[in-house]
Write a structure and sequence with these properties.
Order of helices and strands: HHEHEHEEHEEEEEHHHHHEEHHEHEH
Helix content: 25-40%
Strand order of the largest sheet: 1-9-8-5-4-2-3-12
Shape: globular
Number of helices: 14
Distance between the termini: 20 Å
Radius of gyration: 21 Å
Number of strands: 13
Length: 377
């Protein structure tokens, strides 16, 4: 079977052609034709009022923090089981990340524990759609409305997923997407900010353009552009956007192929779950996911460590995921937890991500067989 990596970036075949076109046009900086075409595709696909491409999902989250007027002493509620950028974007503005536990089924933020974490200093709830499976957004939006809070979707893993028929990224006030090479739709590095609340559109353009009204200038709305607000350089280059456009054109077929891989894992591991060897992912009925990842939960940390090591010896790359932020050195220093964090603590020690990439199809049966062999030993 040879070496099977955990991830392998997928190329549709048009990426280099589009990059060559961008080069031929002589416009390599941001917001050229390819950037605009990607933004239009995102708006059409997600229903967002505005999509702004960024150099990373981290950059999009930083923009969201500025738009939310997050400042020193403000509090932001989020799960601890997430990538560090989810918290860092708000800590950079001086906010305190307030961690709550996750649900044992989806590993998403437990909506039943959010309200207890709200204080007069709370400004926003940041939800993370883990593995492309939606959080319980109706309940979360109701909580936010009752307490006059913003909801920011960290939808880094969730493009092409939906909740009750609504594309993820279109439910909260704002959302951040990732096109990192480990995601389904990629550009190497890259991201986007989706804006669903029209109040934020004009200011978002300014923040993204180093705090200037440069976008208005290029639309002919002002005769010169100047520094008007906070901001930084969040634009991707046209080369990145050209690569991304080739990926968006194949988004449906990419998603269908990933779902087929996901379904194969799920089907062939059903008996192992019944035998008590692992627990498979849970996808609620009102969620349509994008097969971003396939993970299993093993018995405990010792079993997981041995499993990953033995799979590696067999040439198969399996990895664990996040170290919870509430127990990380900097998380302990700048954040706080509300309530019991036992699900986060235990599940983070049990979770293993299996190889998931286009082209795995011909190797997947062997991966599953090796995996079951290791587990049953």
């Amino acid at each position: 079977m040879g070496t099977i990596p955990f991830n392998k970036p997928y190329m549709t075949g048009k990426e280099l052609w589009y990059i060559a076109q961008a080069h031929a046009k002589g416009h390599l900086a941001g917001d050229g034709e390819f950037t605009k075409r990607c933004a239009r595709w995102l708006e059409a696909r997600t229903g967002a009022r505005r999509a702004l491409l960024t150099h990373s999902c981290t950059g999009a989250l930083e923009m969201a923090a500025i738009l939310a007027d997050i400042g020193p002493g403000d509090e932001v509620i989020l799960p601890s089981y997430t990538f560090v950028s989810t918290a860092n974007a708000f800590v950079l503005r001086g906010a305190v990340p307030v961690f709550v536990d996750i649900r044992p089924d989806t590993l998403n933020i437990d909506e039943r524990k959010i309200e207890a974490a709200i204080t007069p200093r709370t400004k926003a709830i940041v939800v993370v759609h883990y593995a492309g499976v939606s959080c319980e957004m109706n309940e979360i939006m109701d909580i936010a409305q009752r307490h006059n809070l913003l909801v920011i979707e960290d939808a880094a893993q969730a493009l092409m997923s939906s909740y009750n028929g609504r594309p993820l990224g279109s439910v909260g006030h704002m959302a951040a997407l990732s096109f990192h090479e480990t995601k389904n739709i990629i550009s190497g590095e890259g991201g986007a900010l989706l804006i669903n609340d029209a109040r934020f559109i004009e200011r978002a353009e300014i923040i993204r353009e180093k705090g200037t009204n440069r976008s208005k200038f290029f639309r002919g709305q002002v005769d010169k552009y100047t520094w008007t607000d906070l901001g930084s350089s969040y634009l991707p280059s046209e080369l990145i956007s050209a690569f991304l456009l080739a990926q968006t054109e194949e988004a449906d077929s990419i998603t269908q192929r990933r779902l087929a891989l996901w379904d194969t894992y799920h089907r062939f591991l059903e008996q192992a779950e019944r035998d008590g060897l692992l627990r498979r992912p849970v996808v609620p009925q009102d969620c349509a996911h994008n097969a971003h990842m396939y993970y299993v939960l093993l018995r405990d940390l010792e079993h997981r460590t041995r499993f990953i090591a033995e799979m590696r010896e067999r040439g198969i790359g399996c990895v664990f995921h996040y170290v919870p932020l509430h127990s990380a050195p900097y998380g302990e220093r700048v954040g706080r937890s509300v309530g019991d964090m036992s699900v986060t603590d235990t599940h983070s020690e049990r979770l293993v991500r299996l190889p998931m990439w286009l082209g795995l199809e011909e190797h997947q049966a062997g991966v599953i067989q090796q995996m079951l062999d290791v587990l049953r030993r």
